Amino acid sequence: MAAARRIVIENCAIATVDADDTEYASGYVVVAGHRIEALGSGRAPEGLENVVRRIDASGHLVTPGLVNTHHHFYQWITRGMATDHNLFDWLVALYPVWARIDEQMTYAAAQGSLAMMARGGVTTAMDHHYVFPHGSGDLSGSVIRAARETGVRFTLARGSMDRSEKDGGLPPDFAVESLDGALAATEETVRQHHDASFDAMTQVAVAPCSPFSVSTDLLRQGAELARRLGVRLHTHGSETVEEEKFCHELFGMGPTDYFESTGWLGEDVWMAHCVHMNASDIAAFARTRTGVAHCPSSNARLAAGIARVPDLLAAGVPVGLGVDGTASNESGELHTELRNALLINRLGAHREAALNARQALRLGTYGGAQVLGRADQIGSLEPGKLADLVLWKLDTLAHASIADPVTALVFGAAAPVTLSLVNGAAVVENGRLLRVDEDAVARSTRDEARRLARIAAQG
């Protein structure tokens, strides 16, 4: 790092989210190249060479960048639909629309999803894309291109579905892939795009969609494929009572037991939602170190229920936060999920002891890094880790009278982002994206949403 270009941030509160939850009321962070070089209390060391930028961050809190662990980018162009449905009815209403997406739509939707998250402090995003209509173009490539242009770190969970209505599933018959086609396309996506290096900007996971849209063979062979290729596994699990009933009727067991029977529990696996889990399910996740993507706003939007996050954490289960697709969380922001995770979980059995502000921040940072298998690289502010960090402005009307900055960030209104760094490079400054034109993205997503609506209406 000696010859690296340095950015020095001073006079800020710092929440490192390290193993000891180290915090500084007024401190500094030194970024050298792609990595965090030093941080601590007081002023930065004197005599630093190659300082290209020095920031007086008075009135700000610095945290690790937020890590999103579950999303469906394509849903950005189907927001505001089926607003009074539960999960299964919502899916039945929307699958026929989603099955008409193409590469241009997917690219625009990914731009919109990524822009909204990045503006709100997300430095690592993920997309679980599982709808691949025949002849729709290079959907995976379009999503990866959008992430690269936005400048965020990215995991593509290459999804798939092969259980359609004729097989007892929910997707229409024309909206699914064949077993062999899904496996071959997934393997090709991994081989073409996955980067296993420490500072990787793009990684790929194997991600069959859900028990009610995927055959047992696809789940089992998908797990085998992921482990042969050395990548992670992702799917939906235990989201609703209807899903639990479906699994019992079709497989003779609950979702967790079914996943375990197909090789889908393990430290290389994370699942979205995990709302309806009993003590035995939680113990199985803890024993196998299977991760959870908690999506509080989406779970509320679809009336799915309240996930047992305090019990999962107490058992040692890795838990991160997810936006989920914006057809079930129209805001598309992760920083609001810090607050929603805390508030919704306090409605559960643990009440006011469910989560506190620092636990919520950990879910959105280090917890997400754990779930994505990148806790050694991101998720906390520590020397040697990648320089993914956010400066939150907390000295305005919205937050200035809250003495504790972490409480202000989590309990208060969504805080403005003064600066967001990914790999040491600025992605957001003063609340605006630096690498893409937000207004152009807004126009594009509106146009593609209208085009999709016209095509879907024509059947």
From TrEMBL:
Protein name stated in the entry: 8-oxoguanine deaminase
Organism, scientific name: Streptomyces cinereospinus
Keyword entries, A-Z: Hydrolase
Domain of life: Bacteria
Domain Amidohydrolase-related: 61-406
PANTHER family: AMIDOHYDROLASE-RELATED DOMAIN-CONTAINING PROTEIN, AMINOHYDROLASE SSNA-RELATED
MF terms (GO), sorted A to Z: 8-oxoguanine deaminase activity
Keyword set includes Hydrolase: yes
EC nos: 3.5.4.32
Tagged with keyword Hydrolase: yes
Enzyme class, broadest EC rank: hydrolase
InterPro entries (alphabetical): Amidohydro-rel, Metal-dep_hydrolase_composite, Metal_Hydrolase, MTA/SAH_deaminase
